[in-house]
Design goal:
This protein is an alpha/beta fold and about 290 residues long. The chain contains nine helices and 15 strands. It comes from Pseudoalteromonas tunicata D2. Methylates ribosomal protein L11.
């Protein structure tokens, strides 16, 4: 199928609205890029993060009447003054195939692999988690997830109760079960993430060991291990909730933290914990330790 895309220079104020206009025109998908062409990581609860200078990209079927799209957009109040756009014909290729080609099995530590279902499992004797990209965050390709997977892989989880706080696709919880955990509690504010986690657990044959809850519905429990890949601000704000779910001497890892945010998160937790050395991967870090 052939595609055409329109790239529109936007601002922090109007990017979200422009995205809605593109969807009104029948865009198959809308993406935000900042001026450095870095896709949005994850908006905090109830908010869409946008940069001061954002490019909004609308993807259309090549048969779309782009002049009609441009006419519609140019009449909108946000664009009537300055409408800076570029239309690009995308090379005609098998996009689905290309998208699938981008996902490969990835190894974490000595024995853990995350494998897309359409790929051959490289080592059937290893700890293999089958996981396809879906609506919920977490395929292992993002450094924040990778930092947590490596940490889980380094532990002896045999028989342990593990909390996956901000479970997304359920990747961390499922990996924990496959690494020996007896029970995993997944918590997420997004009901779609809870559904995705259960689907993925089922595909991996471990659904009977995974429970998932919205934060307001979670039962009382104390876990041996906690992994939380959310963002620095909620990790700071929720430190008493996060540590409150962990037994004394329980191990925890916090991720979703940019290098420059590491100290601000570590400072909040060090009062209640023995912290490990901070682990870095690219611009992201993991803060981990043992609760006092
Ligand atoms: C970066 S994703 C992590 C997904 C997966 N655990 C991973 O490591 O790839 C963050 C997840 O945390 C959830 N989340 C964000 N804030 C949260 C909060 N305050 N409580 C629970 N979940 C939260 C989001 O809905 C999202 O699914």
């Amino acid at each position: 199928m052939a595609w055409i895309q329109i790239r529109i220079n936007a601002t922090k104020q109007n990017a979200d609205q422009i995205s809605d206009y593109l969807m009104d025109c029948g865009s198959a998908s809308v993406t935000f890029l900042d001026t450095n062409n870095t896709p949005i990581y994850e908006p905090p609860i109830g908010e869409v993060i946008l940069w001061a200078d954002t490019t909004v990209i609308g993807l259309f079927d090549a048969s779309e009447d782009m002049q009609a799209v441009v006419d519609y957009l140019s009449e909108q109040p946000e664009l009537v003054q300055t409408f800076d756009y570029k239309i690009e014909q995308l090379e005609d290729k098998d996009w689905e195939r290309e998208w699938m080609d981008n996902f490969h099995p990835i190894k974490f530590g000595e024995r853990l692999w995350i494998c897309p279902s359409w790929r051959e499992i490289p080592d059937p004797t290893a700890v293999n988690v089958l996981l396809d990209p879906g609506l919920a965050f977490g395929t292992g390709t993002h450094a924040t997830t990778a930092l947590c997977l490596e940490w889980l892989e380094s532990l002896d989880l045999t028989g342990k109760t593990v909390v996956d706080f901000g479970c997304g696709s359920g990747i961390l919880g499922i990996a924990a079960i496959k690494l020996g955990a007896a029970r995993v509690i997944g918590i997420d504010i997004d009901p779609q993430a809870l559904e995705a986690s259960l689907d993925n657990a089922q595909r991996n044959g471990v659904a009977h060991q995974l429970e998932v809850y919205l934060p307001q519905d979670q039962p009382e429990f104390m876990a041996d291990v906690m992994v939380a890949n959310i963002l620095a601000a909620p990790l700071r704000e929720l430190h008493s909730v996060i540590l409150g779910l962990l037994k004394p001497q329980g191990a925890f890892a916090l991720s979703g933290i940019l290098v420059e945010q590491a100290d601000s998160v570590a400072n909040v937790y060090q009062e209640y914990c023995q912290l490990d050395a901070i682990a870095e991967q690219g611009e992201w870090v993991r803060v981990s330790g043992i609760k006092n």
